[in-house]
Design goal:
single chain; about 300 residues; mainly alpha; two-stranded antiparallel ribbon; 13 helices; globular
Length: about 300
């Protein structure tokens, strides 16, 4: 089995577990508090990587560190929005398929930032993504086939913000692997988390330290999962083609949907079911790219 497939499969399973545990923490804690507590699980994981022999491998460490640092900050900010979406009764079976469409952001930004044209399959993916957002922005209906549209629920607004921020993370994460090792990328990712935590501690006056034990420990474990998931995804990009790894990495919400619906008793009517399929399809389509025209590589070299 190819190394990239092993790393990508492990990463996909890790992120699936993360997505299924996140609603548990979000029931009792704010997104900011989950972000802070999750760093307690991520930091020790990252510290172990400081002893890796591969830590100093790679060229242009300055660029790589900045990109990996940005990945940590934006990923943390996106997570806060995501946890807030779940905390405002957003179904995990809908929130995660929507955020899996984060490749929509670099595709839309490419003509302006990298002078690249939107290709045919990307235009189709954009159309499918917009349809998915429309269909998923519905409220449960007593009818098994009819749902009522709701423009826009609070959880949906948080979810769309998460999608936007994760789109930026999607760009910086791939870029970091071109310049530095997976291990150093993950360490810098953790530093970005800490910087965001410090900002939250200094500015978020709504933080409450009355933390239920279950939600607190789940939040810490979420951090461990994020560290392991990020490292394995970094490694998958290094050993495999981005044109293959990117779509494959977008498959974890399928596991989320299959488990979250019965586990959390989340209602899925016909429109939402079609929307979920459209979102998953759009995420995969939009993440397909040609290896020879990676935006960040071109920007870095040119």
């Amino acid at each position: 089995m190819p190394k990239w497939l092993i790393y990508c499969t492990v990463s996909m399973l890790i992120w699936a577990i993360w997505s299924l545990l996140s609603p548990i923490a979000s029931r009792d804690l704010s997104g900011s508090m989950i972000q802070i507590l999750s760093s307690a699980g991520l930091i020790p994981f990252a510290l172990l990587l400081l002893f890796s022999k591969n830590l100093r491998k790679g060229a242009h460490r300055g660029k790589g560190l900045l990109l990996a640092l940005a990945t940590g900050i934006t990923a943390g900010a996106g997570n806060i929005m995501l946890y807030n979406a779940l905390g405002h009764h957003g179904p995990a079976s809908l929130v995660f398929p929507i955020t899996s469409m984060s490749p929509l952001i670099p595709v839309l930004a490419a003509p302006f930032l990298f002078k690249e044209k939107i290709r045919g399959h990307q235009a189709f993916g954009i159309a499918v993504a917009l349809i998915a957002i429309l269909l998923l922005n519905t409220s449960p209906s007593p009818s098994p086939t009819v749902a009522a549209f709701s423009f826009f629920s609070k959880w949906m607004l948080y979810t769309l913000l998460a999608l936007l921020i994760f789109g930026i993370t999607f760009i910086t994460q791939k870029g970091a692997t071109y310049f530095i090792s997976d291990e150093l990328s993950t360490v810098a990712f953790a530093v970005g988390f800490v910087l965001l935590d410090i900002f939250l501690l200094l500015t978020d006056r709504s933080l409450s330290w009355n933390i239920p034990a279950k939600a607190g420990w789940v939040s810490v474990f979420i951090g461990v999962l994020m560290g392991a998931g990020s490292l394995t995804l970094f490694a998958a990009y290094r050993y495999g083609k981005a044109s293959i790894v990117s779509p494959f990495s977008q498959l974890f919400p399928i596991i989320t949907v299959l488990v979250a619906v019965p586990l959390y008793h989340e209602p899925i009517d016909l429109l939402r079911g079609i929307g979920i399929l459209a979102a998953l399809g759009a995420g995969i389509i939009l993440s397909i790219e040609r290896t020879q025209s990676l935006p960040l590589r071109g920007a870095a070299e040119g």
